[in-house]
Records
---
Amino acid sequence: METTDTAGTEPTSTKTTGTDSTGTATTPAADALRAALADGVERWKPKVEELARNIHGYKEISFEEVQSAEAISALLEEGGFTVERGTSGLPTAFTASAGSGELTVALCVEYDALPGIGHACGHNLIAGASVAAALALQPYVDELGITLKAIGTPAEEHGGGKALMLERGAFDGVGLALMVHPVQDGLTYNPAGTSAQAVGRYKATFTGKAAHAAAAPHQGVNAADAAVLSQVAIGLLRQQIPSDHRIACFVAEAGHVTNIIPEKAVVEFECRAFTLPEFRALLERVRRCFEGAAIATGTTLEYEDTEPLYEPLLQDDDLAAHWTSAMDAFGKDTSRSSGLSGGSTDMGNISQVIPSLHPWLSIPGADVPIHSHAFAALADTPPAYGVMFEAGTALAWTVAAAASTPNQRERFTQAAYRRRTSPQEAVTQEGAS
């Protein structure tokens, strides 16, 4: 696969007649629009790269992305967008809009960092790619007959910003939604068939009874023991779950001094699986580990949801084909993936109700795991920004192709999201998920 030699360069070839790999007819007008969109990304490169570098330096965590959100909003305003700040009641969310076409397209923008290690998931690159695509598309929204929205979605790492915004109406009327996500080098650029896991995050609180640890330990009920037993039970459970399921936990509280029997212990945990039925079954098994620990120690147990549920990710086949065609033009490896990918994203919630694309973007030379200090450093390098701009161009081309293909345009227009407004709709949509 070509890496730094092609990063940020023009495509190696374009077609002027016939059909592309998606089966969509290519015409001189379509090729001219592709070239114009690529030129638009090129024109905005200096300011978008400066934006992405600044976001990398801000290192703002979930719901605290004040500087990042404002910097992105200001640049989109400069590019001709009308910006609503504080969308859905979230201070660091925004919606930048252009055009008034019947087909509404959303480019999702992420910009939150991870606590302690900064942009080790490359959200500065996600922001840069979506903003570059939005700025390139803005002059052509009327020609394409679209309403284009760049939606700033905070708190992807923790907090489920997209899930909250979906519930509160930020995606009402949207017919297709797109973004990209950086990963290690060597992954295919073909998103078809890939996914991400559902994840739920919770807090288990054990309550016991305090007592003097030397004078009267037998009068206490040790909540810390319950935390230990639950971890042991979960550790043993891991042998008996499918290889693509994940359980993680840590003890957030389990006593404060040695001479008091701990009366309170808190364990935060998460469960992941690729389908909602599998996720729910796994969660039930994990809960039994906590419940058994409570019975064994004589403590009481309470659960609390700490974040919205992140749902599995669905890739739209038509959008994936347009993206893959664009990556072919950049000389990328677009061989078919083996399928599912690990990790989770609140883009999954969007994809369950709106045709969506969330392809993976390989950073050249990145042979380290995401969510590491090394990956954070690589997300702020010339090769990373090179593929960021290729992704921005490919996003713009994907939007233009989808909007210009009549049968797909009709499907996306008909798919415009409408929130549940009645109990019957809630039952119907829940059953479909």
---
Amino acid sequence: MQAWRVHRNGEPSEVMRLEEVERPVPADGQTLLLVRAANINFPDALLCRGQYQVRPPLPFTPGVEICGETEDGRRVIATPALPNGGLADYVVADTAALLPAPDALDDAEAAALHIGYQTGWFGLHRRARLQPGETLLVHAAAGGVGSAAVQLGKAAGATVIGVVGGADKAGVARELGCDLVIDRRTEDIVAAVKEATGGRGADVVYDPVGGDAYAKSVKCVAFEGRVVVVGFASGVVPTPALNHALVKNYTILGLHWGLYATKDPAAVARCHQELTALADRGAIRPLIGERVAMKGAADAVQRVADGATTGRSVVLPQGARR
């Protein structure tokens, strides 16, 4: 079978190689899956660079979430077991963690439903306790992680302000349902949020970017607001000024979704049921920016690493299906 492998750390387009390898053999408690679609996540780029919190042994195959097919023909969502990730024709995954792919979504959409939407759901509902009528500020609102948070925020009855970089992404954010879109390249985020909220600020901030996005967020967070720290796509990890959090009376919430898979897997399954119900009624639908053939996977991971994509980039190893 074919699989993309990384033999040394570096930029994805330079270190990923498409190779012929042996089909993986499932161990006890694992299932062999045909990969129908593999969603690219920013952690895939970090894995290539050797900068992710998990560092699989070299060589390894990136790809942390897929829509796959079991031997009996069931479509499932899975997180493959590294070092044999999803950018391959076949993977193995833990049987107990397999989730049914919603019938309402095609393969690419189903592959993109899991990590980003689970992160959004846990961040907004379990950590920040987002309430109907509150104002939600989402950074990178046209990206894969941000677009999921926008849809989940609207489904929860929040007023959603999306921050993007560029006019094209602003148009995408509006189509996603943002009530207000701020182009960080041409507008003052803090002033725009305060004006839109009558000076109150955002009740919940969803930040997968870090760096300057975080610095701006804490300047326009509301009294008793909550800042959900999801990641650092900017490459800059902010250092919170805790005296500022004290004076303004806001909460900084960290979210590492992967911990739920080990510490509370039942909560992951319940979340998937919620997400499936939302997908079935059309309240959420993963934004697929591009569907890429297997040979184009390395370049697609590089585009995600460079922040040059809109929505999700999904690799289709078996070609365009469903």
---
Amino acid sequence: MSGTGGRPSGEGRRVVVTGIGVLSSIGNGAAAFTRALRAGRCGAGPITRFDSTGFRQQLAHEVKDFDPADWIHHLPHRELGHATQFSLAAARMATWDAGLEPSRLRDQRGLVTIGTTDGEAAELEEIVEAEVTGGGPEGMDPTAVRRLPPHRLALAIVQELRLPDAAPSVVGTACAAGNYAVGDGFDAIRSGEADYALVGGADALARRTFAGFSRLGLVASDRCRPFDANREGLLTAEGAGVLLLESLDAARARGARIYAELLGYGLNCDAHHPTAPDLESVARVMDLALADAGVKPDEVDLVSAHGTGTKTNDVTEARAIRQVFGDDPPRTVALKSMLGHSMGAASALGAAASAIALARGFVPPTVNHRSTDPDCGIDCVPNRALPAPLRVVVNNGLAFGGNNASLVLGRYEDRHEEDQS
């Protein structure tokens, strides 16, 4: 088992979140996303992205009311796959939300890291179908072929926003990839290697992924009910979450609104099982994150869980949380009850929600809830948001293959001014 949490806490620059871009089944943009989180909105609905004929389950979480032309002004958006459109739009939203025109970033060193599970899986499906049906290379749509490379999820952001000194990269650590990407940006800002970072995750709904989870028997019949005694599984989803990170000094110098401070993160990979989580590894990644952040377990007010709604994940994660935080752990919520499981975007959307919750002082609920599984033993804040003066939030992302990532975010406080008082 390996693990890392970046540089030791207290070294390097303080890192803050100043912009949030979101595309999700419950709302697009930080303001709409915030309202939906407060309201406990669930974005499940009939699948329209692909033909779901023959599948027992017919529901997913799709992004609605999205016109790529509203956000993509320089690149030909019709030549971009859905996941790339999502990541690019979320990145532009994040700069707009931060009050930063991209032109102000062009003479700065930047990092653009996007996590994904599937990349442009829908394009791959189209290409494979053309080959299988006998079309051969001549039957393949050249536009679909150009959309396929997953590195475009980050490269297109650099090209569209015209950021000549930004390094693009894509992280493929499945459903923990969004947190991995945020950790990458955190290190770059903290160490001084970059002046800003646009980081997060994006995935589009894909028939291949839906079919895979369906064959595993992990798809719910109507709603995702994490930590519920009668939960059936997850609902697949799509979306994107991108955070704009800056150093605290830079944010204060321009009078930026600060959502939250990134305090630390942890990563590990146990390779325990292709799909099943390992309790010790999940506990270990939270320990790594807390150690990196210099935060004690009793200082954490909320855990934003991976919380898929599957039998194994929820019990394992809940037990790991109790192992780290004790028999009376912090409130633990599962945003996938509202958002569905958006794969590589999931933990990035969790990071965005955590930052919003810290800034706005509330706990998003776990919706669709009936009764908590006693084997989980956590307060999942059922169905209704709660006002709460949150100080520290832990955001988990757990992936197939044992790829785990945990972020620690804190309410922004000016420690320099506190020290002078």
---
Amino acid sequence: MSVGMAAPRAPYACDPDRSRGRLFPEPPSRTRSPFRRDCDRVIHSTAFRRLKHKTQVFVFHEGDHYRTRLTHSLEVAQIARALARQLGLDEDLTETLALAHDLGHPPFGHAGERALDACLDAHGGFDHNAQTLRVITALEHRYPEFDGLNLTWESLEGIVKHNGPLIDRSGQPIGGYSDRGVPVGIADYTSKYDLELWSFASLEAQVAAIADDIAYDAHDIDDGLRAGLFRIDDLKVMPLAAEMIAEIDRHYPGLEDARRGAELVRELISYLINAVFTQAQKNIAALQPQSAEDVRNQNHALIAFPSGVAEEEASIKTFLYQHMYRHPRVMRVMGDAERVLFDLFSRYQTMPGDLPPEWLDGAERDSAAERARRIGNFIAGMTDRFAMTEHQRLFDSTPDLR
């Protein structure tokens, strides 16, 4: 099948007609599948709108053309849908997971996550996947009969497990959770609604996860070039990029750097999508899964880069880490951003009356851990702009973050 043609629904795809349902039963929609309904609920959520003013790498006022969490999520969804279409997966579920995967991120990108993790260290720390689960199961208040969005089981498991199982079959935390354990928010929720943390998630979730990597690689190169943190010819230290740039220069001699960079980003996205699609076909053909349950019971992910491409993709991340995420300009701004959140958390701890009234409902009964988590939830929901406004309201001096 050529890339671009939609495949018929595969037997290993998640079937909306066979969904495990919702924690709070609801009548079915007359016009939408359960997964389409999930996607629409994510799009209409308050948390999704806030992504417009949450940092990806560059703070909101550094320029109108840099990615935000919202534009990143849209790009992930576009890539994920392209892969899902080729593999015969459910596009609505795939889109839901792509659009929802960053709902739990705090302001100021990974700097904000580091700051909140340190602030909450004595109370289980901060994990953005666990925070996303809190957002969609508790913190959104839009429906009369339940908190959260009441998404299907398949959407919830995909959000929590898109990077793989969190525990082994004996219940021991694995991978990135082996040291600190399963995050509190996930452990608490799965005690009442089992998301089977020991199994892999659906192929739709695996596609959304790898689409996140592809989008990061491509658009961070694009934003880094735009910001002048490196030049397109600096990318030639990576053989894959060097080959693509040479091909671009052969086809378009004398092309200005801005267009060379845009063409490179397009070529890179296409290359990585094709590599994933080809490898997925091989993995699926070898294992012949006949249902979504067969996928969940595998001992490894079926959606992955081929080994050689995985090395090329890792080299892109290494380049970006060295030349972008650790660039002195970015490090300075993110260091100031961390201090903003440290200040806010400390202030709300010592003066909880500074929280909005709606965030104080029931606070008088909070334990120390519950109060800290309440403050963490409030700060995690902030946009960059609101965090700065709050800091300016509560403190005499606020960093400029430029």
